[in-house]
Amino acid sequence: MPKTSHSLAPTFHFRKVECRYGKLKALTSVSLSVERGEKVAIVGPSGGGKTTLLRLCNATLQAHSGTVEILGKCSENLHPRQLRLIRSQIATIPQDLGLVPNLRVWQNIVSGKIGKLNLLGNLRNLLAPSKNTISKIHSLLERVGIEDKLFARTAELSGGQQQRVAVARALFQEPEAILADEPVSSVDPARAASLVELLNDIANERGLTLLMSLHNLELARNHFPRLIGLRGGQVHLDQCPQQIDPGSLEALYRLDADEILEDG
Question: Distance between CA atoms of 11 and 32, rounded to whole angstroms?
């Protein structure tokens, strides 16, 4: 059953956030909120700050200035134990999926609970999972359409199947939100659309917040009710697809002369 979003703090709230890598400013004065249960696509050119934004959302990166609130808590003020708890509530599907090729599918999926269990619990899950755990994993694989791959080695799966393992791992984590960083960059358009649709459906079913970075603008416009456009580390647009005019998109993706030279 979907979780209620009434009277809850936003899943993510950024207030004048700046983030740097050395002297390079990855994000500059970014202010935005993502409410509980929202589905948002982050779009924009390469180097615009999309991955940095997602890393701030799962607290694997800290802002240099400004405030980042995750599930109502300021990430920079959290003790290590609190930080671990917050991270366990935010599932991340990285661009490379983060799977271990030589492990079985079920073993990759149980790794989703690493942040929530102690060492003994994690070892038990990886070496001798209970029947209940295997049953739960099988149900998740049914939901993503690859229930017959439960005991397969992950390296033997197609790219699209591995993406679905990553989705099942995120769900096994029992998160409040799912972050997906370019999760469809390595598959054909039909499989890409299918995965984006699957993640949206699951987020709706479970009342999860979904934040996904995408290079494919058409996918973003067709499947998300809100688009945040990042360029040069700043928010250039934050609208529903129907409100975005062509001029705004042209400005978002325009390459200046110095950027063309930098890209070779």
Answer: 11
Same domain, 258 and 182: yes
| Count of structural domains, the chain | 2
Structural domain span for residue 102: 97-174
| pLDDT tens-place string over residues 150-164 | 999 999 999 899 999
Which residues contact residue 72 at a Cβ distance below 8 angstroms, ignoring those fewer than 6 apart? 8, 9, 10
Rounded (5°) CA angle 202-82-77: 110
Q: Does 3 map to a domain?
A: no
Q: Which amino acid is at 13?
A: H
* CA–CA dist 175, 165 (Å, integer): 16
User: Same domain for 45 and 153?
Assistant: no
Whether residue 134 is found in the same domain as residue 241:
no
7 vs 67, residue with greater confidence: 67
Q: Which of 144, 174, 204 is the last residue of a domain?
A: 174
Task: Please tell me the pTM assigned to this model.
Answer: 0.89
Q: Residue 185 maps to which CATH number?
A: 3.40.50.300
Q: H or E segment at 17?
A: strand 12-21
Model confidence at 263, in pLDDT bands (50, 70, 90)? very low
- Decide if 72 contacts 34 (C-beta within 8 A): no
Give yes or no: residues 84 and 190 share one domain.
Answer: yes
Asked if the model's pLDDT at residue 117 lies above 70, the reply is no
H helices within 61-158, ranges in order?
80-88, 105-110, 119-127, 131-144
Residue 63 has pLDDT above 80, yes or no: yes
**Distance, CA of 91 to CA of 93 (rounded, Å):** 7
52 and 118 inside one domain? no
Q: Of 176, 180, 182, nearest to 115 (Cα)?
A: 176
